[in-house]
Each structure stands twice: as structure tokens, then as C-alpha cells.
Design a protein that fits this description.
The chain contains 6 helices and no strands. By secondary structure, it is mostly helical. The chain has a single domain, classed as Nucleotidyltransferases  domain 2 (Four Helix Bundle (Hemerythrin (Met), subunit A)). The two termini are about 20 Å apart.
């Protein structure tokens, strides 16, 4: 299994790239919508896998995005389980269908909730730093 710090770095990199595209004007360039959704998918995947790797480091496990989100919430790494479950729903929508209306709904969800990823990243990083120092 990948070392948790490596997975956290992947999570941070994808989140930084997501944040960069969210700063662009979606109305002036239609590619921004697609780029945001693609970067969100990478960020979501890296986020739940970061939870999985940290749990493994701590001697615990989770097998799916939903179970990892639930465990992270139980541990206090995620403050608002509902936001993450909404992000999971959005990720599932993007993975299985594409329509402009759904894409815009997902975009708004991402824009309104991406800060939750930063909170998770910081919580996991602070936790690991306690073990490594």
C-alpha cells in the first residue's frame, strides 16, 4: 500500500489544480466546465484514497468512497458528512452520464464545497505529522 504521505501529496496536487480552474470564468470559456469536472474527479479519488491510506496506517480499513467518508466523519477528519456525500453523489453523476444541466449542477456543488477537501487535507496532514515527528 502506498505510503499515506505520498497519497496526501497527490491529493494536495489535484486539489491545487482544481482550485486553479475554479478561479477561471466559466462564462467566458466553455472548457472551464469540463476541466473543473475532470479535476474534481481526480481530487475526489485522491481524497478518499488518502483517507483509506491513513486508516491503513492506523491499522484500520475502508473499502469504498462511502465507507471511507463515514469513517473519516466518525474520526472528526470531516466536519460535514453531508457535504462529502453530496460530493460523492456529484462524482457518481459525472462518472456515468453527461448532460449540460447535470454538468452545471455538479459544477455548482464543486464550487460551493471544494473547501471541504482542504479541511480534510489539513486534518489528515496534521494527524500524520503527530506520528512522524
Amino acid at each position: 500500500m502506498m505510503e499515506p504521505k505520498i497519497q496526501l501529496e497527490k491529493f494536495k496536487n489535484s486539489l491545487t489544480r482544481l482550485e486553479q480552474v475554479l478561479q477561471r470564468d466559466i462564462k467566458s470559456d466553455d472548457i472551464v466546465l469540463d476541466a473543473t469536472i475532470q479535476r474534481f474527479e481526480f481530487t475526489f479519488e485522491n481524497g478518499w484514497k488518502a483517507i483509506k491510506h491513513v486508516l491503513h496506517f492506523l491499522g484500520e480499513s475502508c473499502d469504498s468512497p462511502r465507507s471511507c467518508i463515514k469513517k473519516a466523519y466518525e474520526k472528526g477528519w470531516i466536519k460535514d458528512e453531508g457535504k462529502f456525500l453530496e460530493l460523492l453523489r456529484s462524482r457518481n453523476l459525472t462518472a456515468h452520464t453527461y448532460s449540460f444541466e447535470i454538468a452545471m449542477e455538479v459544477y455548482e456543488t464543486i464550487k460551493n464545497n471544494y473547501q471541504s477537501f482542504w479541511d480534510l487535507y489539513n486534518n489528515l496532514t496534521n494527524l500524520l505529522n503527530k506520528f512522524i515527528e
